[in-house]
Amino acid sequence: MITEMNTRDVISMKLLHYLITKKNYTPMIVQGVENEIWLENLDEDYKIVRIVNNYIHNDEQMEFDVFKTKRMAKKVKRKTFTFNIKVLSILTDVGDNVDKEKEYDGVDIIYYEDENKLINNKYIKESFPDLANNLEYSEDGFQLFLKITNEINQKNMKVSMETDNILKPKVPIVTYVLLGIIITIFLIIQTMDKNLVILKYGLQRDLVKMGDVYRLITAAFIHVDITHIITNAYSLFITGRLVESYFGKKKFSIIYFFSAITASLLSICMSENFSIGASGAIFGLLGSLLYFGFHYRVYFGNVLIRQIVPIIILNLGIGFIVPGIDNFAHIGGLIGGYLISRGMGVNSKDRKSDKINGLVLSFIYLAFLIILVVMREA
Question: Which of 18, 74, 259, 355 could be 337's S-S partner, Cβ–Cβ 3.0 to 4.6 Å?
Answer without folding.
Answer: 259
